[in-house]
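From: lab user (bench 3)
To: helpdesk
Subject: output format question, protein + F0G

Hello, I'm new to running complex predictions and I'm not sure whether the block I got back is the full result or only part of it. Here's what I submitted:
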Amino acid sequence: MPPLSTSAPGVRPTTFRFRCISCGEQNDRAGQNFRCAHCSDLLEITYPHWKESRLDPQQLKSIWRERRLSHSDVDLSGVWRFRDLLPVLEPREQVITLREGNTPLYELPHCANITGVPRLFAKHQGLNPTGSFKDAGMTVAATFARLAGFRWVACASTGNTSASMAAYAARGGLRSLVLVPDGKISWSKLSQALDYGAVTCQLRTDFDGCLRLLQELVLRAPVYQLNSINPFRLEGQKTLALELLEQLDWQVPDHIIVPGGNLGNSSAIGKALVEMYDLGLISRMPKLSVIQAEGANALVRTLRETKGKRLVSVQAETRATAIRIGNPASWKKAVHVLETTGGACEEVTEIEIAQAKAEIGAEGIGCEPASAVTLAGLKKLVKNGFVKPEESVVLVLTGNLLKDPDYTIDFHRGELIKNESASAGLNGLRRPPIILDATLDAVIRTLEQAEKTS
Ligand code: F0G
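Helpdesk reply: Thanks, we reran it on our side. This is the complete output you should expect:
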């Protein structure tokens, strides 16, 4: 299998290059592990021609607006609509797309009241085709996998990456291999991978063990890896920030808050903000903050204990299984983003996550547990004065409520958090199903009771 090249068939040469994030070495090619040949660190994609071609920010904004009226596949995709800031593809029919992106930006009046931050929004990436933000990156990376001539794609996953990869592989006529931790991903996500035709291996290890194995596998077998180590994934995920700013009429929010797991998404959004700033699309930078579960707090500890110099890995444990990651691959990129944008990094408890998830649910939009860390984190950032009440805040909701129904049902039945006294404060949020005799009387009594307590 040839190394991945910027001059693969269908890709105009010189439109982008791979650059090592540590030693800065640039190359037209990347090995199958997407690591620097000299120092083994991660690669990112750069666009040397941007400077000479003098992209005009006003013109870009109007092109992106105009494309919303078009019916071509690439314009209907909320990712490829922003293709001017992505690796270029010719001809465009080669794109593998499920019309990802185009996700709504919601106001959160109920959560605004709770947090005391009136200008509070949610960018709901859980409304992507496979129910998570991964689709924005997958359309780009799967497209480049096929262009490079691969037949197999593979990933290690806590569930959402595998669901997304399997779907895009199926659409693109590729085979897919999924490595997931046995018993530690939700049935919904597992069922997606199965239905989309992936060869799905449940390994007796955690996510970090799966990723380690995948890194070795790609050096031995002709499979293209689609984890967020793959820089094409991050290019696609950048478009979240472009679409968000467009939805805000290019008025820059003060804060963007994302959950942190393997730290690809925070890296992608941060890269987009820097590029937008450099290109003159925005005149100032929002602060990008990353929130982790207390039991999977590698980045929090890395910053606290080594000031971001050396990764502190942890044995991850959290019911927010999407972010049950102890050895995040993109930690250096995330540290850089926090430094560049001036963002914060916080951890939240299992009870805080459960409460925040129910509060977002009560807005009528809902999300999966990992996404709810953003609201729980915002409460902390308001409390410690990092976020001021008059500032505007966007929470990035990364996954759909339907991704983890067991969590939601356990929460409402009072079975999620074992420590009764610690979780007593959550009772007001619980709406357990009520089992009744099938009589009109019983239903009316229940309705009256509910009216009294509302
Ligand atoms: N939210 C959800 C719903 C996720 O699925 C993930 C990661 C994250 C947040 C964290 O994003 O890794 O870019 O920092 N899910 C992975 C997976 C790793 O395999 O689906 P990150």
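A quick orientation on your result: Residues 132, 157-161, 228, 259-266, 322-323, 368, 370-371, 398-399 surround F0G (CB under 6 Å). Let us know if anything else is unclear.
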